[in-house]
Amino acid sequence: PSVILADGGIQGSVLNWLVIEDYLTQKNTVAATSFYEKFTGQPISQAVLVNEMKKHASKEAVKRADQFFNSQLFTWVDLANFHYYQKSEALPEVIAYIRKRISLNKAFMTNEIGIKKEFSTSPELAAQEMIKKYAHLLALQVNPIIWFSPGGKEDNNAGALIDERGQIVEQTKNSLEVI
Known about the structure:
Blueprint: H1 12-25, H2 29-40, H3 46-57, H4 60-70, H5 73-76, E1 79-84, H6 91-102, E2 107-113, H7 123-139, E3 142-147, H8 170-178
Parallel strand pairs: 1-2, 2-3
Helix pairs in contact: 1-2, 1-3, 1-4, 1-6, 7-8
């Protein structure tokens, strides 16, 4: 049998801050603030973003992800893996950043794609976000895509598959039937 090896998956929240750090290193504050707005849905001033970046850059998870990119990890695996729970509009830049950092012709996958409640105000909006994510990921040749739906987590909207009562979100069901 064929065995394919993937890394454990870098967290999307960490990747977002690495993308911002990359833009700021290039002195491209306009792109950095624009990207922040894409993944959060919230505007931010350049000064506040620079301060937020300083806080996040010192966090252990961000440092560890940067070390992974600087290591030989991606020469040893068949697939580069990541997790993403933020807004869909930021995904193309996240994928471009990963490709730039790995600089190998490496296939991509995600074994955790979902939406956190803070990025969608209802299961219906979360369902729309998930369909957008699938469209972006497929267009960017990310495959396989695993929809991670940890039911019972208050901050997760159950990945937009089910609502707070455990019932299927009709918008998700209908969208998937169309696809």
